[in-house]
Structure formats: structure tokens, C-alpha cells
């Protein structure tokens, strides 16, 4: 116990060498595979190291607890998705809005379809184990990526705020993809979901944005008095 407490007090090893990356990845992959078989509360660290093929002490060199491992899995998978979207946008070069939207949504659908059960576990862990500050930080990064994608489109209106438009778009996509994965949507459904999300997103972007209320202006009270119909 004293040795474990001493290890916990120190900063965890951060993978630097290829072998360290492989060990950390093996632990994370084993954890995700076990989550596909049983709930988080029933997965033990001893099971994780057994599946990963590493020693118990090695686990504590990288992660202080199962919760920290869960947060690391969420963070790294989120980072990979963000980088994939950024690479897809960069590869487009010059593009119009419809092309950019379809490319971004297709990239997400392809990534989710490659490992749907792992992404299902990702969204479940994100809801229960991510710290609020980390969740909001990741959310803001995705909003900025969508803002950049909209602004770079050749036909994006110069007088329209891409930041304002990015919020409902990403919120829609995040919710629909997460819900589909948590429900266990079959692989055959990803193509139809992608096409529907492209149509819905473009319709959302084509709709006029409500005018911003001036500072100090009161919102109109459209509520009807009780008793009236």
C-alpha cells in the first residue's frame, strides 16, 4: 500500500517512447474491450491488466485509478476525432458550403462506423466520468473547428457570424451521432444518418438567423394571460 501511495503521489508517466505509447494504448484498448462485456462498475483493474498483458504495477505507472483511465480514453478519442475533422477540412482546399458540410459529416460518420461499439462506450464514459471543464474545453474546440469550416467556404456570407451558426450545427450533430451510437445503430444505418444530417445541417444554415437583441433591450412577453385561449 505504501508503494502504491508513493506512486500515486508522483506524476504519472506520460508516454514518450514508442514502447510507452504501445503500453498505454494496450491498457486503454483492454479497458474499452471489457466495457463492451460488462458495466464500468464491474470492470476491475486486475482484469484490465490481464487483458492488456501488462503487470499491475505497470498500470499504476500510467494511471492512478480506473476513473483516470476512463478520462484519458475520452480525451484521446476526442482529440483523434478533432484532428481527423481538421485534416479533412484542410485537404478540401477551396470548397463551397455544401461540399464542406458533407465532407465534415462524412468524416465523422466514417470514424464512428469503424468502431461503433467503442464510440458507444466513449459517449457513455464522457457523460459519467469526464470533468465538466474538460467537456466544455473539448466542446469549444469542436465549435471553433466548425466555425473555421463555415468561414472558409467560398459562398459563406461575409455579414453572417460563423461562430453563431456553428453552435446549433455542432450541437445537432453531436446529439444525433451520440444518440445513434448509444442506441446501437447497425452499420447499415450510418449512410442514411449521414445523408439526413447533411440535409438537416444545410437547411439549418440556410434559415435566417434571428437578430441579436441590443444591450438593455427587453425580450417581448408573448405569454398569454391565464384563462385565455
Question: What descriptors fit this protein?
Answer:
229 residues, Arc Repressor Mutant, subunit A, Tetracycline Repressor, domain 2, 2 domains, 10 helices, disordered C terminus
Descriptive notes:
This protein has two domains: 9-64, Arc Repressor Mutant, subunit A (Orthogonal Bundle), CATH 1.10.10.60; 68-206, Tetracycline Repressor, domain 2. Helices cover 70% and strands 0% of the residues. It has ten helices and no strands. Helix 5 (66-92) packs antiparallel against helix 6 (97-114) and helix 8 crosses helix 9. The longest helix has 27 residues, at 66-92. The chain is elongated and about 60 Å long. The protein starts with a helix and ends in a 23-residue tail after the last helix.
Explain the layout of strands and helices:
Layout: H1 2-9, H2 18-35, H3 45-52, H4 56-62, H5 66-92, H6 97-114, H7 116-129, H8 132-152, H9 162-183, H10 190-206
Helix pairs in contact: 2-3, 5-6, 5-7, 5-8, 6-10, 7-9, 8-9, 9-10
Q: Number of helical segments?
A: 10
What is the name of the CATH architecture of the largest domain? Orthogonal Bundle
SS elements, strand count: 0
CATH fold-level name of the largest domain? Tetracycline Repressor, domain 2
Instruction: Report the β-strand fraction as a percent range.
Output: under 5%
Q: Could you write a compact summary of the structure shown?
A:
The chain is built from ten helices and no strands. The chain is mostly helical and 229 residues long.
